[in-house]
Amino acid sequence: MKKLLSPLLALALAAAVAPSVARAETQEVRVAEQFGLVYLPLTVMRDRKLLEKRAAEAGLKDLQVKWSRFSGSAQMTDAILSGSLDFASGAYANFSVLWDKTHGAVKGVTQVGIGPVWLMSVDPRIKSIKDYGPKDRIALPAVKVSTQALILQMQAARDFGLDSYARLDANTVAMGHPDAVAMLSSGKTEVKSHFSAPPYQAMELKNGAHKVLDSYDVFGGPHGSSIVFAPVKFHDANPKTFKAFVQAYNDAIELINTRPAEAAEIYKRTSNDKESIEEIVRQLKDPQVVSFKMEPLNLTKISDFMYATKRLQAKPARWQDVFFPELQDYVKE
């Protein structure tokens, strides 16, 4: 992975220090989202064309928004570094590595959502992470760098000691949440555990899986885990477009919080989720499942852990160190 990213990192660093030239703002914005209820604000933005509306208000009437969907953060990192993506969404842990290695050439735009992620299993032997043997497999979005992978490592450090934080890395396999749910339901695979996310973990609970680990227990309470991030070069070259994106994201959160039934319909229609709209509404109204606000919550606990395990050369003292200043306008003092 290090060899693969090195040329891209070099290009990103060169672009970050290159002199800027005054020019018109971009006419196309490329945005990536991921699977899961926690990414609903982006889904609402896309479905209701909220970015286009905010851009038009700012005088950018011809802005085209190109959406793509990824199953994990690693692919988005490569896309950001190669310049083929303007706004990415994914694990704060993966972003932290990117921020560190590019010396701040990429920064956070907003927190995605707040909610616990659960390690689920259909294997009755598994009651805690201490029960995993060398042949037991755990599906998660990305090995070592996803939110789920980091939380597993944090618990491993607590149970086995800091030097053994990576003890269960060999048990993990990269897999998108929908595929992992289907695999656990089939009962015909060696993968019998899934470090899940809303709404998939609730579906797995209904299907007979049990909870092995709750991230709120690891963090000591509610936390964010994923963010939207973007290159500083794009931010500086497109201030109106960037501001429109942040406004549109806030608009999406307001829609979800004030019109949950409408938000649930959007999610069900665009995700082909099998849950009823009523069940999705129930989850959206339950802060123990998922909630949405832009202000980062407990994210620096992740970067603190990564720094302690020598995967970051620098760590932010506060969230403001790694996010664009526009976010401050949406933080309640």
UniProtKB/TrEMBL annotation:
Known PANTHER family for this protein? ABC TRANSPORTER SUBSTRATE-BINDING PROTEIN, ALIPHATIC SULFONATES-BINDING PROTEIN-RELATED
The portions of this protein that span the membrane are: none
- Signal peptide coordinates: 1-24
Concerning Pfam families, the annotation shows:
NMT1_2
Q: Please give the organism.
A: Ramlibacter agri
Organism's domain of life? Bacteria
| Record carries keyword Lipid biosynthesis | no
Taxonomic lineage of this organism?
Bacteria, Pseudomonadati, Pseudomonadota, Betaproteobacteria, Burkholderiales
Question: Which SUPFAM superfamilies does UniProt cross-reference here?
Answer: Periplasmic binding protein-like II
Has the keyword tRNA processing been applied to this entry?
no
What protein name is recorded for this chain? Answer: ABC transporter substrate-binding protein
Give the record's keywords alphabetically.
Signal
